[in-house]
Amino acid sequence: MAFSVRALIADDDKASAKLVEVLLQKWGVEAVVAHDGLEALEQVMQPEPPSLLILDWEMPGYSGIELCQKIRQIDMANPPYIIICTARDSAEHIAEGLNQGANDFVTKPFNTQVLRARIEVGRRTLELQARLVDAMTRLDHLASYDELTGLLNRRALFERVHEDFSRAVRTESRLCFSVCDIDWFKRINDKYGHPAGDAILRQLGELLSQQLRPYDRIGRIGGEEFLLLFSVKDAGRAYKVLERIRMEIERFRFEFEGRVIPVTMSFGATFVIPDERVERVEDYFSHADQALYQSKEKGRNLVTF
Ligand code: GH3
Ligand code: MG
Ligand code: MG
Ligand code: MG
Ligand code: MG
Q1: In this structure, which ligand is nearest to the CA of 16?
Q2: Which label site among 123, 184, 225, 279 has the fewest CB atoms less than 10 Å from its CB?
Q3: Which intervals hold domain GGDEF (predicted)?
Q4: SS3 readout for 256-299
């Protein structure tokens, strides 16, 4: 199916607006009409605004040019394609219209065929833009999220963690920084198969997310290792939170193809009173990592600070 656009016709001359509206209808382009600049801007500010704007130059409220300027100042993911439509056809006017952010310029009285072709150019441009925005959105997601678990990947996670620390300094809140790792995961893979291991990682990602609050931070550092960062009043409470999570995992029925697979996790953690030195994040990480190592040494399925 051809990519379809919705148009806005803004013209204080009702007959002229009607003419364009009828033509667009004939060409299968859905359109809304505004008779002054304010009404037009309102339309553009809607949650799902028209993407092709056909603006008269002189209108009460805002002129077509003022509208262009205003619209181009707004940071839009999918900015509209703007055609200025006016009787002013001097070279200066055309140049000004384009310089103020219009994509195209049609002089009145316009030739119907030319208007149609220009609208088609707009449609093609908007289609290309939509595809680009879509691809960028998917790339952004791929760059930040782990494909298997849907959690933040290591790089994006550490970026966010640095921000979390700066915020914690400002709000004088305290944090618990924890690294956790599935016990004997290699054996699980060997015994139940790699797809079963993947399923566990996915289920575990969900379980961990459920255990934390939406504003806490969680991500997959790599392999079967995750990072948890949450605000908490004191070390005692931080220990309780992690103990609860550890027990939830121990209790949870991880399933793959009808088989229940027992899973436990070891935790290393450090209680943090954030300060201005952001480079400390790496220190906290290595602290938590050493504590994790101790949990493993002491027999696994443990929380160590
Ligand atoms: P420990 O209790 O000391 O952590 O033992 P372990 O077996 O969990 O640790 P080890 O580091 O020896 O093995 C980790 C295993 O995790 C090896 C690797 O194949 C597996 N693994 C890493 N990433 C994935 C993944 O994405 N999917 C699956 N199925 N397995 C993974
Ligand atoms: Mg006018
Ligand atoms: Mg290991
Ligand atoms: Mg492991
Ligand atoms: Mg590991």
Answers
A1: 2
A2: 279
A3: 173-305
A4: ECCEEECCCEEEEEEEECCCCCCCHHHHHHHHHHHHHHHHHHCC
Pocket of ligand 1 (CB under 6 A): 148, 181-186, 189, 194, 197-198, 201, 223-224, 296, 300
76, two tokens: 């839009």
Q: CA angle, corner 48, sides to 42 and 53, nearest 5?
A: 60
Query: How far is Cα 153 from Cα 118, in angstroms, rounded to an integer?
Result: 44
Residues whose Cβ atom is located within 5 A of ion ligand 5:
181, 223, 225
Angle between helix axes 235-251 and 194-211 (nearest 10 degrees) is: 140
Q: Which atom number of ligand 1 is nearest to the Cα of residue 194?
A: 29
How much is the pTM? Answer: 0.78
In ligand 1, the atom with minimum distance to the C-alpha of 186 is 7
Residue range 145-201, pLDDT digits in tens: 999 999 999 999 999 999 999 999 999 999 999 999 999 999 999 999 999 999 999
Q: Which of 224, 226, 256, 304 to mutate to test the pocket of ligand 1 (most atoms within 8 A of CB)?
A: 224
Nearest-angstrom CA–CA distance, 247 and 207:
12
CB-based contact 83:119 (threshold 8 Å): yes
CB-based contacts of 181: which residues, under 8 Å, 6+ apart? 224, 225, 226, 265, 266, 292, 296
Is 127 catalytic? The answer is no
Contact 69, 98 (CB under 8 A): no
